[in-house]
Amino acid sequence: MKEQYVGDVNDYRKYALLRLLGRSGLRLGVCWMLTPNDGRSDGNKLGYLDQSKQERHDPELFALLRRVRNEPDARRLILIEGSEILPRAVFVNTIVPETLFERQLWFKQASAALADADVIFFDPDNGVEVGSVGKGRRNSSKYIYRDELAATYRAGHSLLVYQHFQRKERESFIRDVADDLRRVAPDAEIWAIRTSHVVFMLAIQSRHRPSLSQAAHHVRETVDPSFLHAQLTAPASP
């Protein structure tokens, strides 16, 4: 995630989803996976904050994002973390390094900071690793790697992962990402919660299933699908 895009329309949906999942009573850990700002503004979509019809999805969150929209980039993130929008959440907001050694150290420190969380959200620029960008290579900071997801799941955390859609038929793409998650979380119940441009992949630990699966079902049954569209992609494995 880049701080220059904090509060844009994708963030509105992201925070709203985190709030809905947080109603499960489980503690959220948020790993922003920050990368340096690049000076671009192509993704900085704040116009929705001038559309009153958008407020209905989460009025409290919408009001906060309106209040912070004109703050400097880093200040917006600080205000969001310091608000009660995500109560009891634990945050990691350090820059993701690109070199392999520094990346391994960063992940170790992030894991320690998030150890008390039940559900850990990874928010990379792009999503799950691709074959053309190995860990420690240029632009690797834009991805979460399978070994990192596997280690987090083995430590007892449920996973929520931001994934930007690639240029591929979307149902097929979601199945591929779900298959990736199945390999690192073999017994998980897997959900895909999609928006216009991104999908959030949720892998639920068996011990979290009663409350977190119920929260995911609540998203599917009560939230406007044009805002967040949830689908059960892979039932839990025995």
CATH class: Alpha Beta
Task: Tell me the fraction of residues in β-strands, as a range.
Answer: 15-25%
Count of runs of 4 or more consecutive helical residues? 7
CATH fold call: Rossmann fold
CATH architecture: 3-Layer(aba) Sandwich
How many domains? The number is 1
Task: Tell me the number of strands.
Answer: 9
Please mark out the parts with pLDDT under 50 across 5 or more consecutive residues, or reply none.
none
Helix content: 25-40%
The termini sit apart by 35 Å
Q: What general form does the structure show?
A: globular
Task: Outline the structure in words.
The chain is α/β, with parallel strands linked by helices and 238 residues long. It has one domain: Rossmann fold. 36% of the residues lie in helices and 17% in strands. The protein has seven helices and nine strands, in the order H-E-H-H-E-H-E-E-E-H-E-H-E-E-H-E. It has helices at 9-22, 59-68, 73-82, 100-113, 146-154, 170-184, 209-222, and strands at residues 28-31, 90-92, 119-122, 127-128, 143-144, 158-164, 189-194, 198-204, 229-234. A seven-stranded mixed beta sheet has the order 2-1-3-6-8-7-9, sandwiched between helices. A two-stranded parallel sheet has the order 4-5.
Q: How is this fold's topology laid out?
A:
Layout: H1 9-22, E1 28-31, H2 59-68, H3 73-82, E2 90-92, H4 100-113, E3 119-122, E4 127-128, E5 143-144, H5 146-154, E6 158-164, H6 170-184, E7 189-194, E8 198-204, H7 209-222, E9 229-234
Parallel strand pairs: 1-2, 1-3, 3-6, 4-5
Antiparallel strand pairs: 6-8, 7-8, 7-9
Helix pairs in contact: 1-7, 5-6
